[in-house]
Amino acid sequence: xxxxxxxxxxxxxxxxxxxxxxxxxxxxxxxxxxxxxxxxxxxxxxxxxxxxxxxxxxxxxxxxxxxxxxxxxxxxxxxxxxxxxxxxxxxxxxxxxxxxxxxxxxxxxxxxxxxxxxxxxxxxxxxxxxxxxxxxxxxxxxxxxxxxxxxxxxxxxxxxxxxxxxxxxxxxxxxxxxxxxxxxxxxxxxxxxxxxxxxxxxxxxxxxxxxxxxxxxxxxxxxxxxxxxxxxxxxxxxxxxxxxxxxxxxxxxxxxxxxxxxxxxxxxxxxxxxxxxxxxxxxxxxxxxxxxxxxxxxxxxxxxxxxxxxxxxxxxxxxxxxxxxxxxxxxxxxxxxxxxxxxxxxxxxxxxxxxxxxxxxxxxxxxxxxxxxxxxxxxxxxxxxxxxxxxxxxxxxxxxxxxxxxxxxxxxxxxxxxxxxxxxxxxxxxxxxxxxxxxxxxxxxxxxxxxxxxxxxxxxxxxxxxxxxxxxxxxxxxxxxxxxxxxxxxxxxxxxxxxxxxxxxxxxxxxxxxxxxxxxxxxxxxxxxxxxxxxxxxxxxxxxxxxxxxxxxxxxxxxxxxxxxxxxxxxxxxxxxxxxxxxxxxxxxxxxxxxxxxxxxxxxxxxxxxxxxxxxxxxxxxxxxxxxxxxxxxxxxxxxxxxxxxxxxxxxxxxxxxxxxxxxxxxxxxxxxxxxxxxxxxxxxxxxxxxxxxxxxxxxxxxxxxxxxxxxxxxxxxxxxxxxxxxxxxxxxxxxxxxxxxxxxxxxxxxxxxxxxxxxxxxxxxxxxxxxxxxxxxxxxxxxxxxxxxxxxxxxxxxxxxxxxxxxxxxxxxxxxxxxxxxxxxxxxxxxxxxxxxxxxxxxxxxxxxxxxxxxxxxxxxxxxxxxxxxxxxxxxxxxxxxxxxxxxxxxxxxxxxxxxxxxxxxxxxxxxxxxxxxxxxxxxxxxxxxxxxxxxxxxxxxxxxxxxxxxxxxxxxxxxxxxxxxxxxxxxxxxxxxxxxxxxxxxxxxxxxxxxxxxxxxxxxxxxxxxxxxxxxxxxxxxxxxxxxxxxxx
Length: 1035
Known about the structure:
Elements: H1 2-9, H2 18-32, H3 39-46, H4 49-59, H5 71-82, H6 88-95, H7 106-117, H8 126-137, H9 141-148, H10 155-171, E1 279-281, E2 300-305, E3 308-314, E4 321-324, H11 325-330, E5 336-337, E6 341-343, E7 352-363, E8 368-376, E9 381-383, H12 388-391, H13 402-405, E10 412-413, E11 419-421, H14 443-458, E12 462-465, E13 472-478, E14 487-491, H15 497-500, H16 511-517, E15 523-528, E16 537-538, H17 540-545, E17 548-550, E18 553-557, H18 567-578, E19 585-588, E20 591-596, H19 601-617, E21 628-631, E22 633-636, E23 639-642, E24 645-648, H20 654-657, H21 665-677, H22 685-694, H23 706-723, E25 733-739, E26 743-749, E27 757-764, H24 767-770, H25 774-788, H26 790-793, E28 797-802, H27 807-810, H28 822-831, E29 835-840, H29 848-854, H30 880-889, H31 893-904, H32 915-918, E30 924-927, E31 930-933, E32 936-937, H33 944-951, H34 958-968, H35 974-984, H36 986-995, E33 1013-1020, E34 1023-1030, H37 1031-1034
Parallel strand pairs: 1-6, 3-9, 4-8, 11-16, 13-17, 25-28, 28-29
Antiparallel strand pairs: 2-3, 2-7, 5-7, 7-8, 10-11, 12-18, 13-14, 15-20, 15-21, 17-18, 19-20, 22-23, 23-24, 25-26, 26-27, 30-31, 31-32, 33-34
């Protein structure tokens, strides 16, 4: 019986509407076999393995075997899961944008209209609206005018008229010329007459004014089509133009003599304020009014307007309300002249005589509201959307919009006094298209990502999400060796959440505001919070927006995360709330400053303990290692605070004051260029710098002595005191970054010319970094600059200035280029946590950044850098360590040239032998002597045959061998070489010939449970399962 049911019903289809048909057939089957009481068992026994697993997932945490889980509940759950959500207003927009396509028949056009109308829930207005859109969407201008001229018209009559016209045009082999109806059926204004092209059209009969086709009478005769002279009307290029005044074809509005408007109802699009003279367009669902065919009473509402009562047609497609002029006059309300140019659906200009500002309209027996009402010549009163929501007449369907689904809630506290934050979002921003798939990861990194995801799940920081609306791909950040956790997972929120957040809703305090809270302080304490952002919980609505997509599925964060543009600003708002009533205390992000005016350390520490208790009660932890407690002098935001005053922090210019002496003329020339740029701060600059300029003279050998050192040190000291300025949150920020073969230089300034410097920094390149390509060194300078000045840049809009033009496009904050090296791609993803733009300037205008990069500071303890490419690039491929060593040691003259080009830049015309490598020049990376193209190694020519042998070790065939090679290696024509290699393999060819004649075999029968178990790994909804099947039970 079970096999019979499977044969008749088949497995359950996992798509809509097929699954709905499946349940209909299943209900008939249960009724025919009288098995209604066993409906659940029949369904689960015959639905198939995939459907069974899906039902289990959807029913959780309920147990599918329990009696509480019924057939009806399973059916409803599955249909709700697969049935697509209908966006009513979107479907109506699609319906009213439907027009007849080129070469589309009337029959097909009507079929498309009816199919789309079925999705719009128009009710009894369905036939009328289909007729309206059928007329507006026709290609034939003549047929449209013919249908509009009829007083009463049914849909079937209009279709028959169109079919007859189409048949006549086909039979006579003279198809009528179709008028160019600009954007027919859409919500935009028609193109102006001056923009119409001269096209040959058939002249409509009976719709033209002054159809004189004779020659002009003398030189002053004017054309009745355009109003100009010098040509015949029959030759006028506006002969088939459409009049914007009367809507007819054959003349322009400047010569129109018609006083009557088109019979189609024309309504205004909005409710402007008095005095507004702008031009408005209707963006509404428009209905064609038929005088002899009334609407159903259920669409009319009896309302009171002033002294009179009126039946009003409820039109959810109209954005405004319009009443006839007779009703407006009898209402006793004051009518004001209207100067707006209003257009209805289709682009026609509407006839509106006046407007009633702030008119009160009350539904008889219901609510009342006040809005603007327009007055026109139409006989039907239209109740539009400016009144409908306030009168509670129609339930609004929920749209996929930020403003409706996710409300902007303030920061609140839970019962444990912990803060729960919510994102403030821009209103009206759509979330459609913000669910991105997971990015591919190297095999060596997948295990690290999986381990970190399991840790985050176990600790409750993240939780699994089944079907998110918004999902951002992850950016794995590898930490230095010896870290507690080798990797940190960040979401690329620049593609999702950062586009939704309204950053303007937040603000940072100014330095003057902070100092005003700690006046005349004698003792200071600076508290640094540990992992501040990660201690802030998010509301359920905001948690959904932090969703990330991984190869293990979708996950959402319960706490605030790095990479969210508003995270620093949200935390600032929380700190302001925490310390609101605490005296002599202020905060800037995760740094809290306490300054007491009493000259008593004991009283100061009492306040410090009070602040610590307040922070502990709110769930925040303090980083004691970075805190400064009970001191006379502290560093805070680039300043030294002491005795109630603020002084510049000498550390801001440390990189400048410790600038080493130049070692050659190129370094000296760069330093003097910068000194000269800042010469405005230095009197007698030329006299002081004379010993330095003497070394640059032609024929003078390099010889650095005491007078050069004295001049160099004096210029550094004078300029340092002139260019340094206080950080001002109200001024724009510029991050100027440059790199050389020796080091990196980065300057934070309030102006692009670097004359209002906030901070300077530099460092030498590590041996590995010195082998980077030139573009990678320039990119590294930007990344290091953002890290160095993170406290100033986080949460602020700033401009990155670089002298390397390609970075202006590679580091585009809206899109990461895939045609660059993996290292630069990873850096670009890290930068997307900031709000920035990139500006290119010439190298000669980099000034301080250029000098700092050529004369960088020697770092005492350079941070250990971990690169993505260093993590077992050949893990899982043979003897990976030995092969990597051979790749490094083996000489290859082409790869030697490629290494030189990577480090020094490509020539304009590379030699012919290097052309295959030059196609994707930005994708190459040099790491520890190994060349990478993306994440794939480029091996020497002498090892490529051996690598092909290793790839073909198990005779995988062409397709699998190509897939395997693309995980590890690349060289020119590798695909063609693999194809030829497999073709030459005797075993592969013999196996391929025998494959078609192979006999199918089956597993032997089993006689008891668990005699043979089949095991496999399956992936379902982003989760991996170990599947065990007993052959005896399921064979």
